[in-house]
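User: My advisor, Dr. K., asked me to get a structural model of this assembly before our group meeting. I'm new to this, so sorry if the format is off. These are the inputs:
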Amino acid sequence: MQIAKVRGTVVSTHKDPSLTGVKFLLVQFVDEEGRLLPSYEVAADSVGAGVDEWVLVSRGSAARQVLRSEQRPVDAAVVAIIDTVSVDNRSLYSKRDQDR
Amino acid sequence: MQIAKVRGTVVSTHKDPSLTGVKFLLVQFVDEEGRLLPSYEVAADSVGAGVDEWVLVSRGSAARQVLRSEQRPVDAAVVAIIDTVSVDNRSLYSKRDQDR
Amino acid sequence: MQIAKVRGTVVSTHKDPSLTGVKFLLVQFVDEEGRLLPSYEVAADSVGAGVDEWVLVSRGSAARQVLRSEQRPVDAAVVAIIDTVSVDNRSLYSKRDQDR
Amino acid sequence: MQIAKVRGTVVSTHKDPSLTGVKFLLVQFVDEEGRLLPSYEVAADSVGAGVDEWVLVSRGSAARQVLRSEQRPVDAAVVAIIDTVSVDNRSLYSKRDQDR
Amino acid sequence: MQIAKVRGTVVSTHKDPSLTGVKFLLVQFVDEEGRLLPSYEVAADSVGAGVDEWVLVSRGSAARQVLRSEQRPVDAAVVAIIDTVSVDNRSLYSKRDQDR
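Assistant: The format is fine. Below is the predicted structure of the whole assembly, which you can bring to the meeting.
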């Protein structure tokens, strides 16, 4: 999985019928030092993530393991809202600090 | 999924038999600020996207989740025509503006 | 799928038994302006493509959707010989011109 | 598989229900000369790897072949703790030396 | 598939139980002109490849199509030992010349 920050949304009315009701988030990847990378993904959201939150994104066939997505043509999904990231025993990110 | 702009078409008569009737679009990827990237995909189209429209492209096994593509050797599909893309609560793209 | 130009062949006698009889083409990727990229793939051929032809290459599990490849350990396949590529309503490639 | 060094952990309470109990390690990739690369993965751990250990990381659908992960939306897993890496008959890494 | 040169081995005793008995080769990728690339893979070997040989490497779910690997968490496998590579009708590599 990659760490990403929710940046926005993508809306479509004309799409594969199986995608009806799926929320698409535009998430931008974050590197191992917490900086935004010039690389993003449009991911199906099933955990209710909001703008600016850090999330875990699964890509490939893993994205279809999310409940009710088994037969949807999605190749990326937000699978978790991150509470904390620790690297070398130091805190890189904490949702609690972010929410203050 | 990645955001891409439809740029053209690819035509082939001599191909895997299962690909008969599949329309191939050449789509060029767009970055998170709306600029064209030097990277493209030839994607099977099932939503009737036209040149210059922005679309969502699914890659990998997800492309075979589109109806009737289950056993086709395709690794990319246009799965949605995009209406709007919003980043940081600003509009990055709106099909309505584009269509004027 | 990616557009690629057939550049050569790879031959192996000592291989996974399921690969007996499979023809391996070395294909080099082409960018959206028709230039060769410094990136290639060795792809199983089932459409009879020849050197210098432009082809569509499918990668990942899609390569195993080709008839009789379902259980072969191949991750790339030539799935179509390209007739024409059009970008922005201009012709980027035409097999007929190439064959003259 | 890629060689990676365990750098830290990612914690999430709000996630896909199937991910309950899964430990997420932040692992940073190592190149063929043993140097850290600017690229990481958040991988599900089932072998009990600890910070600073070198591990093998499998990505894609392979990550779901780990026991009890078959239906989890994970696209990366730590599948082995590395004892030794040898390149050109020289030792690149030895866990025993590292543990001293 | 990608062309790679066998450079070394990776040994692990503490790993996913299904990986017992699997030999891991460190293979370094080769470009379309025969030069080593700064990119490698640790691949399961089932064809008995040796150091310095050129091989074909399959990645992704294809790696699990090798006999007895169907349920192993491997995402790369050596599937063939290469005899010859020809590009533009010239020989890029010949195992026979190499073995002299």
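One thing worth pointing out at the meeting: Strands of chain D lie at 2-11, 14-15, 23-30, 36-45, 54-59, 76-81, 84-87, 90-94.

User: Perfect, thanks a lot.
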